[in-house]
Design brief:
With about 130 residues, this protein is α+β, with helices and mostly antiparallel strands. About 20% of the residues lie in helices and about 30% in strands.
């Protein structure tokens, strides 16, 4: 999570604003705060960020909570391309273990799903 969020009331895909390093390039790079908010924290960075891989077909990831219990969150994650669904999958998050039922095969995607779940539960503990 961002140490000092600059846009605490913004509607963001991961709910909270995040700091970190860019993983879109072959090497991890620091990103200026304004670019990080406008691109990284919103998704759909194609054409806005010079680090966005030209061969990447997806442009953002979106998340929806399908069901919440005391023990789990059932999520739907959707990969978008140009604001339209490209692929989707359901995933289960275990609250007490802070982990997903199965690996996604993509470490960045998995980190984003976990970040979404943590932010969601901080705001909507159920």
């Amino acid at each position: 999570m961002a140490a000092e969020p600059g846009h605490a009331t913004a509607r963001l895909p991961l709910i909270d604003e995040y700091d970190g390093v860019c993983r879109a390039a072959s090497e991890a790079i620091e990103v200026p705060a304004e670019l990080r908010f406008r691109c990284c924290n919103h998704g759909n960075s194609r054409g806005l960020c010079r680090h966005f891989p030209a061969d990447e077909i997806r442009s953002s990831l979106r998340y929806e909570v399908l069901r919440q219990t005391a023990a789990t969150l059932d999520l739907l994650w959707v990969e978008e391309r140009e604001y339209a669904p490209l692929a989707w999958r359901q995933v289960k998050y275990f609250v007490d273990r802070d982990c997903l039922e199965s690996e996604t095969g993509d470490l960045c995607k998995q980190a984003q799903i976990l970040a979404f779940c943590r932010s969601y539960l901080a705001r909507f503990p159920g």
